[in-house]
Amino acid sequence: GENVEQHPSTLSVQEGDSAVIKCTYSDSASNYFPWYKQELGKRPQLIIDIRSNVGEKKDQRIAVTLNKTAKHFSLHITETQPEDSAVYFCAASKGSARQLTFGSGTQLTVLP
Amino acid sequence: SAVISQKPSRDICQRGTSLTIQCQVDSQVTMMFWYRQQPGQSLTLIATANQGSEATYESGFVIDKFPISRPNLTFSTLTVSNLSPEDSSIYLCSVGENGYTFGSGTRLTVV
Q: What's the whole-number mean pLDDT along residues B52-61?
């Protein structure tokens, strides 16, 4: 089955700096890659996703890149703010309505 | 995206008992997914629930421990049976159509 690895497990950045979280996946049939933000005690919230026919997608301060050949994808957050502090999960799926396999998560802390 | 109502939000249960978690979706969906999130950990898929057929369980999860019902296209239940302290986790339902969304989660504590 699919295996998703996520790095780093913790990341601290100064407010205003950029943060990058990286994930690799094992199953070349995976074609949908969402990113979730989970604040303490809350449900995971989808923040951005990308499909395998696209190499990059951007939404304001957040961007995701996908390298299908290398089977890795990354989340980029620019101009970080304290409210970006949360756990971020990457995931992979073989379709947008199929089950997700999650990475292990990254605790992002933005220092004011 | 779909809106999911999940309940209960939390419960404290005695070992050996069972807890049934309900998820109601505001639109018809083909598949519903049940995940477990142990404290400080990632989300692990328990099973996929299709309407009108048996749920499909992931490795390490069995129907006797986690029976699932899916009576229609908007509703599903997950029961965690014969509870032990190791079952203390957050349980979440999810749907993938029109963007993946999660229910608010059920925090289960087994004492």
A: 91
